[in-house]
Design goal:
mainly beta; Cathepsin D, subunit A, domain 1; ten-stranded mixed sheet; three-stranded antiparallel sheet; 4 helices; 30% strand
Length: 217
């Protein structure tokens, strides 16, 4: 899947979660990741109760994907329209099937049910010394699942925080903006797949030129 934009959800030195300690586990989940030799983060993922594999965390991908071999091994059904036609997505002139998984679990966080594009992974050559299980890479977690669960990625600690209660974490950005000097960049995805972004640099605000995603012709 071609991607022209890579946008990090968050890369902070730490985060301040507002949930009381007593019910913190009910509010959010923390998933540790492994960093590859290409500096990409991979999360452990089990689909429909399968053996855990590694999925690339990609904030530049609108959709999540699974390798065709894993899709076939798990017998994931292809998504259908109301008229029982197969649902596909076109990427670089090639039609790719969209399949349905009842469970997409990372650590103890349930990300599914959800839809995945059946497409060959392009990062099979990447390696890591951080994985405690075989570094078998079978898919990619994209923005559809990250946004659904309000994911915040801490690139320094290599952790992903997921909300268990909707699409927003009990998270305060005030500390890492004012005390640690990080810049907050609000991003929203429009129906036309455009990222309108306002970047605050020191005092003035600069409007960036919108850029279109080019994952399919």
């Amino acid at each position: 899947m071609q991607r022209s934009i890579l946008v990090s959800l968050a890369a902070t030195a730490g985060i301040v979660l507002l949930a009381p300690m007593g019910n913190a586990q009910d509010s959010f989940a923390v998933v540790p990741t492994a960093r590859s030799d290409q500096l990409h983060l991979f999360a452990p993922v089990s689909v429909n109760g399968s053996q855990t594999k590694w999925f690339l965390i990609d904030t530049g991908a609108p959709l999540s994907l699974i390798s065709p071999s894993a899709q076939k091994a798990l017998s994931l059904p292809q998504a259908k329209t109301r008229d029982s036609a197969n649902v596909t997505i076109t990427n670089v002139g090639k039609k790719l099937p969209i399949v349905y998984a009842e469970s997409i679990k990372s650590g103890d966080m349930e990300l599914g049910p959800g839809y995945l594009v059946a497409e060959s992974v392009e990062f099979s050559h990447e390696k890591t010394r951080q994985a405690r299980i075989p570094f078998d890479k079978e898919g990619l977690i994209g923005m559809n699942l990250l946004l659904k669960h309000g994911a915040v990625i801490n690139c320094r600690t290599q952790q992903i925080f997921f909300s268990r209660q909707g699409s927003k974490l009990p998270l305060s950005s005030e500390r890492y903006q004012k005390e640690w000097g990080y810049t907050y960049i609000p991003i929203r995805i429009t129906p036309a797949n455009i990222f309108p972004t306002t970047i605050h640099v020191l005092s003035p605000a600069y409007r960036t030129r919108p850029a279109k995603l080019e994952d399919s012709p």
